[in-house]
């Protein structure tokens, strides 16, 4: 399907689910929810003419609290329509802080229903989440009285009864479709229905974010909710969502802008302040496994090529609970360069082009956590990163120097 110059997948047949509760589609039905009777298409409030179509988007969410009392699996005590709505409104406060106000729930459209679908053995014995969704959708439509009202929501959340947690063994307290419109939350496992970071994690899978890695381990990056942290998305994630922008002249740092042995200085702001000028993106085309087409239209790389995202994470910002390992630090993330370079980017006068990689896993991995006023060598990238002085509480100087043979080609300090 083409829309405003952007290609989106429309035909899928199969999906696969991980132990982390992530189900990604691989190929016949709608990627935005095969379990909805009607697929209304891509949410109409996306402005696909803009470089970041997910920015300034308000999600219209329908929350369904599942009550299987007739077969011994009642909804969690205290979860009624009013209390559950309050929980999600509190989530919305935190999402808006993480996104610097450009993303959140449509509070007027937010609706919570307690639904009482029929029980089935597939649900109570084998966690048939697709049956849960189908039956809950049918019950919700009956309450709403109009299929069009149901279809006007952009996303759908299903809150499981606590008794089903022994049947639905989702390691992180929920499950989500990637991409999609639907996600499922447990009630007591990890307290997921009361934890904003679990909600954010599951919700952002719908928009194409995968898990974040550390030390070769999936879902281990504590600097982001996508890695298990009580934290907002990292720079590689927030920039993909359109929540943050790069430092001036820091979006595509390559061999032309970073000469061997020379130190280049940037001022990087904490993303929790405004999101503007909050990260650097390095395209290390000086490495033999990285090839950049000189016409700068298509960027061609080998499978081993990586881009780097560099950000400053300040400590003590609500709603985050970052440990000393991640803040205050200059954090460096690596991502698959082919997928990163081939994603939605502006090509005037044609418009936005999503080449191939809107929903693929770039395998975001944090590789360095650098204190301010220190020097770190990223030997895999022939790059030295200096953590400079704080310029106020919320900004830091970051200095970069690349070398050809050894890091001694770069000075001991940037000054």
Structure write-up:
A seven-stranded mixed beta sheet has the order 3-4-10-11-9-6-8. It has a six-stranded mixed beta sheet with strand order 13-12-20-17-16-15. With 415 residues, it is of the alpha/beta class. The longest helix has 18 residues, at 81-98. The protein has seven helices and 23 strands. The protein is elongated and about 70 Å long. The protein has helices at 81-98, 121-126, 129-144, 147-151, 196-206, 235-241, 337-341; strands spanning 2-3, 6-7, 15-17, 22-25, 57-59, 61-66, 103-105, 111-115, 155-159, 174-178, 182-185, 213-214, 217-218, 264-269, 279-282, 306-313, 329-336, 345-347, 351-353, 365-370, 374-378, 383-390, 395-402. The N and C termini lie far apart (53 Å).
């Amino acid at each position: 399907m083409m829309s405003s110059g952007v290609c989106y997948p429309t035909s899928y047949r199969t999906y696969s689910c991980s132990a982390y509760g992530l189900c990604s589609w691989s190929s016949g039905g709608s990627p935005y929810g095969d379990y909805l009777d009607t697929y209304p298409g891509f949410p109409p409030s996306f402005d696909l003419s803009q470089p970041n179509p997910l920015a300034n988007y308000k999600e219209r969410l329908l929350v369904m609290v599942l009550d299987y009392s007739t077969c011994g699996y009642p909804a969690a005590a205290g979860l009624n329509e009013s209390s559950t709505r309050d929980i999600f409104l509190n989530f919305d406060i935190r999402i808006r802080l993480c996104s610097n106000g450009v993303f959140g729930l449509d509070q007027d459209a937010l609706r919570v229903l307690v639904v009482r679908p029929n029980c089935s053995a597939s649900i109570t014995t084998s966690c048939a989440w697709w049956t849960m969704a189908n039956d809950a959708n049918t019950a919700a439509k009956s309450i709403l009285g109009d299929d069009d009202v149901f279809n006007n929501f952009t996303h759908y959340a299903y809150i499981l009864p606590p008794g089903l947690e022994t049947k639905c063994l989702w390691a992180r307290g929920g499950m989500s479709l990637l991409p999609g419109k639907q996600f499922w939350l447990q009630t007591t496992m990890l307290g997921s229905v009361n934890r904003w970071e679990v909600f954010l994690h599951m919700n952002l899978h719908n928009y194409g974010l995968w898990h974040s890695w550390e030390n070769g381990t999936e879902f281990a990056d504590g600097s982001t909710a996508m890695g298990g942290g009580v934290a907002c998305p990292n720079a590689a994630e927030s920039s993909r969502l359109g929540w943050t922008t790069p430092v001036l002249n820091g979006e595509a740092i390559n061999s032309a802008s970073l000469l061997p042995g020379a130190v280049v200085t940037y001022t990087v702001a904490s993303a929790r302040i405004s999101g503007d000028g909050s990260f650097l993106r390095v395209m290390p085309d000086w490495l033999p496994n990285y090839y950049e087409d000189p016409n700068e239209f298509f960027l061609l790389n080998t499978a081993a090529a990586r881009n780097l995202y560099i950000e400053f994470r300040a400590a003590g910002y609500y709603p985050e609970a970052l440990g000393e390992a991640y803040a205050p630090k200059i954090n460096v993330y690596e991502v698959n360069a082919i997928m990163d370079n081939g994603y939605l980017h502006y090509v005037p006068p044609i418009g936005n082009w999503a080449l191939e990689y809107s929903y693929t896993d770039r395998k975001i991995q944090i590789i360095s956590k650098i204190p301010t006023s220190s020097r770190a060598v990223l030997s895999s990238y022939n790059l030295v990163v200096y953590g400079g002085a704080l310029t106020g509480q919320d900004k830091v100087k970051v200095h970069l120097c690349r070398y050809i043979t050894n890091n001694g080609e770069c000075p001991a300090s940037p000054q």
